TrEMBL record:
<dbReference type="InterPro" id="IPR023631">
    <property type="entry name" value="Amidase_dom"/>
</dbReference>
<dbReference type="InterPro" id="IPR036928">
    <property type="entry name" value="AS_sf"/>
</dbReference>
<dbReference type="GO" id="GO:0003824">
    <property type="term" value="F:catalytic activity"/>
</dbReference>
<feature type="domain" description="Amidase">
    <location>
        <begin position="26"/>
        <end position="431"/>
    </location>
</feature>
<protein>
    <submittedName>
        <fullName>Amidase</fullName>
    </submittedName>
</protein>
<dbReference type="InterPro" id="IPR020556">
    <property type="entry name" value="Amidase_CS"/>
</dbReference>
<dbReference type="InterPro" id="IPR000120">
    <property type="entry name" value="Amidase"/>
</dbReference>
<dbReference type="Pfam" id="PF01425">
    <property type="entry name" value="Amidase"/>
</dbReference>
Length: 442
């Protein structure tokens, strides 16, 4: 049974379908692993034993009657602590929301449950999702799979750790500037950022409503496709027959490959070489206006975040991690006209991006330009924290600013991810590309 803890969700689902795996035994195996894990309380905020076992028992009955609801009916997964779940504390990693208990599930959790998902519980995250590092001295900082002294990536930090440490078959997280893709990259997982507006945010604690997105952190592209479908109430993208040969990719040079760590540079070049060997064409790409678009990040993200949260924050600022508090408050320095002007500029830059990338099947770059930074130094060195946070988010933020969908894949070099950026609302096409890239990088 211990081998179940490292299998993909799809393989577990196929095992249930074949009668080789009992959903009750599978769920109990995961619950036992969580309860025995030395970092349980740094990964999970709450483990919903009763709910998980009740849902697993229902999945067992459906399997016995030949009435399964989806391929992964009966497979246990985790949820980031910003998805409302009925009767369970949901605090979005912040003491500002201490003891907040919703009375109903978020819409995506309802949809996944209706397709047979088993909810193991809620996972730790950066405070109010406003950091790409995963550091949270207020609640807990989950471990990174490769280095117990390094940050796990955020804000979906516990989500990544739950899958990487074998404590969930898949995790659902959110991505506003990189919060699914960074922890996926640093923990060697597949992370999918969906297009803004595609997946319901009802019942999800917000950060920036124009940029907030929801996506899975998974062990395979197939799993990511399945769980995107699950939270939308569908069977997900059909990945059969996808081919890499003949695909044309852009290797983004502007911004994305400046000041990158040597290990990441090497992993990126090796990944590109493997794609070329599999028959893909890769073309260097410069998008000059991207640098100016990136400069809009401060006004767009911090203005919206502080606008949504200022009353709650200023009622009890002492409850917050000072670095996160400072980042929120920086949004107070921009005016309404600043915000409107920034959006007008961004729309122009998005059109320029669309023109520059129209001839490609995807745009490639390192998911993060840096490796996971040291937690102790992040806690003691303000400049190191700020620099690390901005650098961690830099490459992923391109996808959010340009309004794209994005996929991070492990390259085989620890904590070095390859990001593929796709066109808006083209997740199915991106996932078909992703499964072929995954095969080439395996």
């Amino acid at each position: 049974m211990q081998e179940w803890l490292t299998q993909t969700a799809a393989d577990l689902g196929r095992g249930i379908a074949a009668g080789e795996i009992c959903p009750m035994a599978l769920t109990q195996t995961y619950l036992d692993a969580i309860d025995a894990h030395p970092h349980r309380d740094r990964i999970y905020t709450i483990v919903t034993h009763d709910r998980a076992l009740a849902e697993a028992n229902a999945a067992k009955s459906r399997a016995e009657q030949g009435q399964r609801l989806s391929l992964v009916d009966g497979v246990p997964i985790s949820w980031k602590d910003l998805f409302d779940s009925a009767g369970a504390v949901t605090e979005a990693g912040s003491n500002l929301l201490a003891n907040r208990v919703p009375d109903q599930d978020a819409q995506v959790l309802q949809a996944a449950t209706a397709m047979g998902a088993v909810c193991l519980g809620k996972t730790h995250m950066s405070e109010l999702a406003f950091s790409g590092l995963g550091l949270n001295p207020v609640k807990a900082t989950p471990p990174c799979i490769h280095d117990p002294e390094a940050a796990p990536g955020g804000s979906s930090s516990g989500a990544a750790a739950s899958v990487a440490f074998g404590l969930a078959a898949c995790a659902l997280g959110s991505d506003t500037g990189g919060s699914v893709r960074i922890p996926s990259a640093w923990n060697d997982l597949v992370g999918l950022k969906t297009t803004s507006g595609r997946v319901s945010l009802e019942g999800v604690v917000p950060l920036c409503l124009k940029f907030d997105t929801i996506g899975p952190l998974a062990r395979s592209v197939e799993d990511a496709a399945i769980y995107l479908g699950l939270i939308e109430g569908t069977t997900g993208a059909d990945l059969r027959g996808a081919k890499l040969a003949g695909r044309r990719f852009a290797d983004l040079r502007t911004v994305a490959q400046e000041d990158i760590a040597p290990e990441i540079s090497g992993a990126h070049e090796d990944a590109l070489n493997r794609l070329r060997a599999a028959g893909a064409e890769i073309v260097p790409l410069e998008v000059p206006s991207l640098a100016e678009a990136m400069d809009l990040s401060a006004v767009l993200f911090t203005s919206e975040a502080y606008g949504l949260w200022k009353d709650v924050i200023e009622a009890a600022p002492h409850l917050m991690f000072p670095e996160i508090l400072d980042r929120f408050r920086s949004g107070a320095g921009f005016s309404g006209p600043d915000y409107v002007a920034a959006w007008a500029k961004l729309e122009q830059f998005r059109m320029e991006w669309d023109l520059a990338t129209a001839g490609f099947d995807g745009v490639l770059c390192p998911t993060s330009p840096i490796l996971p930074p040291n937690v102790a130094r992040l806690n003691s060195d303000h400049d190191y924290y700020v620099r690390s946070n901005l650098m961690a988010l830099r490459n992923t933020r391109i996808g959010n600013l340009m309004g794209l969908c994005g996929l991070s894949l492990p390259t085989g070099t620890p904590s070095c991810g390859l990001q593929i950026l796709g066109q808006p609302d083209c997740e199915e096409a991106l996932l078909r590309i992703g499964v072929t890239v995954e095969q080439a990088l395996a």
